[in-house]
Amino acid sequence: MSSKDKIVIAFDLYGTLLSTESIAKELATHFGQEQANKIAALWRRYQLEYTWRMNSMTLYRPFSEITSAALKHALAESSVSFSDENISKLMKAYDNLGTFADVQPGLEALASDPSIDAYVFSNGDDDMVSASVNRSPSLSAQSSVFKGLVTVQEIGVFKPDITVYHHLCKKVGKSFNNEDMESVWLVSSNPFDIVGARAAGIQAAWVDRGGGHSGNGGWTDQLGTLASGGPTIIVGGVEEAVKEIKKWMTENAGGSGAGYNKEPAAMGPR
Predict the structure, then answer these.
(1) CB neighbourhood size of 206 (10 A)
(2) What is the pLDDT of residues 189-212, one digit of tens each?
(3) CATH number of 20-95, picked from 1.10.3720.10, 1.10.287.110, 2.30.30.230, 1.10.150.240
(4) Integer Cα distance of 156 and 152 in angstroms
(5) Average per-residue pLDDT for the chain
(6) Angle in degrees, CA 251, 253, 258, rounded to 5
(7) Cα 164 from Cα 17, distance rounded (Å)
(8) How many CA atoms lie within 13 A of 217 on its CB side?
(9) Which residues on adjacent β-strands are paired with residue 205?
């Protein structure tokens, strides 16, 4: 089977494959759990906000620099001091993140399925993503599952700009016709990423590991109603995503499918 005929599953990295829980724990050793949770939430908020603001200004800096600047913003807003050495240590922790429990069996299923090409697809720059994948204690052992690591560094634009998802299609050897785009899937825990993928014309599996969007339970993001819809399917983890994508493709190949053009998203068994 040629690559053009295969299903492509592109996995978001941070928060979908890799858990940042260990970074929050490191913050807690300095500030206590409650304060650490607040700082971690602000850090993530500004990390994303900075990428969107950079997109709006048609500017680009590597994601590692964005992440470091967002941390400093979160610390300053929290009125706490943190040495440059400790900031550097936190940034290096991105090279040693563990995976969620559902990742290993999901990637094992992919390893034995020749009909699917798997990729990592991230806002991160090349060096950051490569280090995170290849030095992760758990993900590194399964890195051979991925046919490639696709980042935004080459095009200098962040998700959810449609250009990023079209860049993905180009890198995995898919054209922009409906048949090809239907066989390209994003798996992500980030609602903004899901809506961006759907607006670009590819399928999307939203990973909801129990907390829902912003801890409110279930899919609550309404921007999809103004764009091209929400997730094609909603799943509880990577293992379920692989299973449900294969099922969806079997049932919907050649058609528009559930979740497309603002139709309700399908939910796998929960």
Answers:
(1) 28
(2) 999 999 999 999 999 999 998 765
(3) 1.10.150.240
(4) 6
(5) 89
(6) 65
(7) 19
(8) 0
(9) 187, 233
Quick one: pLDDT band at residue 263, thresholds 50, 70, 90? very low
Amino acid code (one letter) for 88: S
Concatenated DSSP letters for the chain? --GGGSEEEEE--BTTTB--HHHHHHHHHHH-HHHHHHHHHHHHHHHHHHHHHHHHTT----HHHHHHHHHHHHHHHTT----HHHHHHHHHGGGGPPBPTTHHHHHHHHHT-TTEEEEEEESS-HHHHHHHHHH-TTTGGGGGGEEEEEESTTTT--TTSHHHHHHHHHHTT--SSHHHHHTEEEEES-HHHHHHHHHHT-EEEEE--SS-GGGSSS----GGGTTT-S-SEEESSHHHHHHHHHHHHHHHTTS--TTGGGPPPEE---
